[in-house]
Here is the input.
Amino acid sequence: MSWKSAVKDSGKGYYTLHTQELGSIPVRLFLTPNLLDQVEESIYPQIVNAASFPGVKLVAITPDVHHGYGVPIGTVLLTDADTGAVAMGPVGFDICCGMMSASSDVPVSAATPDNRLRFNREVTRRVALGPGKASHTRLKSLTQKQFEAIIRGGAAYYAQHYGERVDRTRTERDRLPVDDSWQPPWGGEGRPERGVPQLGTLGGGNHFIELQGNVGTDTLYVQLHSGSRGFGHGLATNYFRLAKQENPGIKALDLGYFTPDSPHYRNYLNAVAAGGNFAIVNRLAMFEQISLSFEEVFGRPLSLVYEISHNLVQREHHPEFGWVHVHRKGATRAFPAGYNDPQAGHPILIPGSNRDSSFILRAADQAHLSGYSVNHGSGRRMSRNAAKKGFQQDDVNAAYREVVAGGRGRRDPRRAGDDRARAGATRLDQRNGIIRASAECSARDQPHCERRRR
Here is the structure.
């Protein structure tokens, strides 16, 4: 019998799930009936994993949930902030991956095939794409001392020492605090030093830079999705291994965690903060280059709409559960207006699939039901390996050339990473229904917020 037979409609915009394996842990699934039908059977053991960490208060499942590493991607996990675990699977390897969105007053009609191709070429000239690539920016040759100053000081330090080029009032944060006593595990198993030359690079997988059009204002937007690159991955790898050494009984590396009595507990939180500062500056440095590219092609500036992170663990207050550590794996913070935080009422950036619509939302008053969280929008319906087996890269490239440049040009017009292009170009990622389900379940649409791919 499927675990879905135990799912009940709460009547409050989400389903509940109660089974013997879950015990008394509340599990809320923010899904429509259609999305629930489509969820993989393999998600249930991963939900049980999420509910099994010490001190869990709530597991929330977001609309674009799919099979992940230990826990589903699209998991929001709340643990007791004073006695519970900080869990690493519900943060993941790409620490503080996140979104940026920017607007302009340039009409969509200016995005002619020639200008789309020019913009593509300008961006790829300035921003390195793909796994393992080094930066093209002024940050490509940082010393270790300069790099450490950035991962401790975040965007505030970067702006002070490298120049203020972006209005940072429209960002979730300038920095995440890092203890002075913490030191990056240079030379450790994960080799976080891989990230030193990567500030200002996109990466691969589902990371992208995309030219879009706002359907309400008929003007051009640009959206960016990227994270902490080799630095964050290296940090995560190191602490996953330490957790396994500390607790050999952990049945899978992805289920590693630290409790407050662990000597690694505070160090891991510092590592997440340092990886977060890298990711914030990484997006900021790329946005500077994208803005220069946009002005070169379209003659007008970009204005930052918002920058926001996912794949983090943060201490927050929740009206049902008190002080908690909120883990957001493939999920984004969503504080409604009136919440006790300077960013309350902030925009939520949810990208759709390749060649589909994205949305800018704001959280509804009942957002606490989902742990003040919403899906991050970069899910998929088909695995990367399945997409590679099912589709020919040349066919996907040809489809993208048509979109980007009307069929002209030799440069491969993919966003970044052949796996993402293969899955996305064939419309196999999770699509608009999931974005709309998110709006129905945990957020409310804002005027003129839908943006379509160009």
